[in-house]
Structures are given as structure tokens and as C-alpha cells.
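INTERNAL AUDIT FORM
Audit reference: QA-55
Scope: verify that the stored structure record matches its stored sequence.
Auditor: D.O.
Record contents follow.
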Amino acid sequence: MVHLLTPAEGGVFLTVRLTPRASRARLGRADADAAGQLRLKAWVTAPPADGAANRALIELIADALDVPKRDIEIRRGLGDRTKTLFIEGDARDVARRLEKALA
């Protein structure tokens, strides 16, 4: 799953396709969008109002990767279903944690 991550200074970028108002919060498999960019599917129970779904996504990713919520920031897509997250930390460590979370 390392191919989902884009290394950046101080961390990595992760593109996520979010579905709010799901029956349960979970991470799914990766798929490609129309442009061929890989993105991780995620579902949260929160509605997309007042940033609730965005906060739930950050909590879901933080729990899955066992990193503090403060180390995750939505850099693009605050009002869209497709979001680009910046995850602070060592790229190899984040990749290892993501692979473990998706196994």
C-alpha cells in the first residue's frame, strides 16, 4: 500500500475518497479515480455538516495508524468527498502503519 502515499517534507500525502453517513466507520481498499490516481476508500458515520465528517476521518486515520490526531491535516478537499491528507512523520513508518491497518 506504499503506492498510496506521496512522500513530502516532514511526512506524506494520502488521498482519500470519503463516504459520510455510513453505517459504520472503516477503511476500505484503494481504487483509482478517472485520472488514474490511487485513493483510499473510507467511511465515517458522521454527516458532512459543520466539518463533522472531516473530523471523523482524521480520527479514523489517526486510530488506524496509531498516530496523534494533531499529526494529520486535510490539505485539500475540505468540502469535497476526495481529500488529500498530510500525515506528519517518517514516510517509511507511516507506510508500514498503513499496510498493517489495511491488512
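Auditor finding: record pair retrieved intact. The radius of gyration is 12 Å.
Action required: none
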